[in-house]
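Hey, I'm writing a tutorial for new members on how sequence and structure tokens pair up, and I'd like a real worked example in the thread rather than a made-up one. If someone can provide the structure for the chain below, I'll link this post from the tutorial.
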Amino acid sequence: ATADFGVYVNSKTSLQIKLPYQAITGKLADTSGPGDISLCLTRNLYSTERSDINVSLGTKIPTNKSDKETDGRPLPMYYQTSLGTYDFISGVSYINRNWLLATGIQIPLNKNENQFLWGAWKGTEEEAYVNRYSRAKELKRGTDVMIRVERNFRFSRLNFTAGLLPIYRITSDEFTNPAGKRFKPDNTTGLALSAIMTAGYSFNVQSGVKLLLGRKLVQRDENPDGLTREFVSTISYFHRF
């Protein structure tokens, strides 16, 4: 669940704040808590009746150290409610009535304090299951470059979009191995590609609902950060004050 606030600083500048809460249920444990706080400042650089060009600067702020455990054993990143890192984010977007084209970069600035290694689960009933997860002790995620392409279909009260979201990790993830040395797996870089569709309905000029569906098309071989999703669906209600 996410509370998403957008505030106009002036006619060309806006601030977006996202406050998520996550609840995760899995074979190893049930975890919950606040997710990472997102802040994004967007400035309009060029505007006409037909199109806009915007630039954005933002950050993600961790709400915990990504070190949740169960029965004294560290949990994989998939069970964490925070990535445990401060991230720098920037991007540029072009928007007109029919298209959204955007590109951006996300750079983690530190390693987290996750302690997940396979050895902590050795001899337990869950050992074979746990070994399916990538190790993530003191994980420092790689840098991601994103491109987003969407086609818009707008009507009086209804609107739809369909698009692609390729995210390319250009540098390897890095974690501390059982020998205490920093290690970079070979297969944490590369493309993650998703197809995205949205549908929105406006009740009036102030409020409405929006449905988003996302489906994974291509995924990297290893994902120590726990960000892999096969399918995503969200429904949101918005109100303009």
